[in-house]
Design brief:
Largest sheet: 5 strands, mixed
Order of helices and strands: HEHHEEHEHEHHH
Number of helices: 8
Number of domains: 1
Strand content: 15-25%
Shape: globular
Strand order of the largest sheet: 1-2-3-4-5
Helix content: 40-55%
């Protein structure tokens, strides 16, 4: 089990309060996509804008159906809010030296953008949701890559809003990773007290190791 996925799972369940959360969510080829025409239009317009404004050819020559069949996400949460599903899609990455997919033909900010857009398509096609948090989470990313990624997220957010979607795209990294994810989990550890959760079990072991014997 990936420890970062486990941390984000715990955060989505306990801190973000999504009652339904799954790690390693996967698309099934038995599913029929909903709002397919709208999703294809969103994909097409987003590709055009990113090629024109950023020089990035999102997904290369892959077709819409091929992109959907890549279907998986590290952590997915869902809860009902009114008549619509509110979703959380989180992709995670941990590289010791900082975010680096090592793809010479595709910058990391393009990889992140493709993951976020793909999850927007999943939210629309398989969860019938036009609202939610679509996140990329990594503990460490360089300042230059963070800036490029944030610029891409701003562009992606503007495109989706224009087409009537209320998706909140975000990069959570560096200090925000600690402040928004790790610290709230640690602060609530005693309340949650979930012995089956990998993150809280690890915290418990660390606390035991730090205790001094009282004579």
């Amino acid at each position: 089990m990936d420890i970062l996925e486990s941390i984000v799972y715990s955060w989505a369940k306990h801190i973000k309060q999504f009652p339904v959360v799954q790690m390693n969510w996967k698309y099934s080829p038995c599913w029929e996509p909903n709002d397919e025409r709208k999703a294809q239009e969103l994909l097409s317009r987003t590709r055009e804008r990113f090629l024109k404004e950023k020089g990035l050819a999102l997904y290369g020559n892959s077709r819409f159906d091929q992109i959907l069949k890549q279907g998986e996400c590290d952590v997915v949460g869902m809860k009902l809010e009114g008549a619509e599903n509110n979703v959380l899609f989180a992709e995670v990455a941990f590289h010791e030296a900082g975010l680096d997919y090592g793809n010479k033909n595709k910058p990391d900010w393009q990889v992140v953008t493709e993951k976020l857009l793909k999850n927007a398509l999943y939210a629309l096609c398989f969860f019938r949701s036009r609202m939610g948090e679509l996140l990329f989470i990594t503990p460490k990313v360089s300042a230059g890559k963070e800036k490029e990624t944030e610029d891409c997220i701003d562009l992606l957010s503007g495109i989706t809003r224009r087409y009537g979607f209320n998706y909140h795209f975000r990069l959570i990294a560096n200090q925000s990773f600690q402040e928004e994810i790790v610290l709230p989990l640690k602060d609530n550890a005693e309340i949650i007290h979930d012995s089956e959760d990998v993150f809280f079990r690890a915290l418990g072991l660390l606390e035991q190791g730090n205790r001094k014997e009282v004579i």
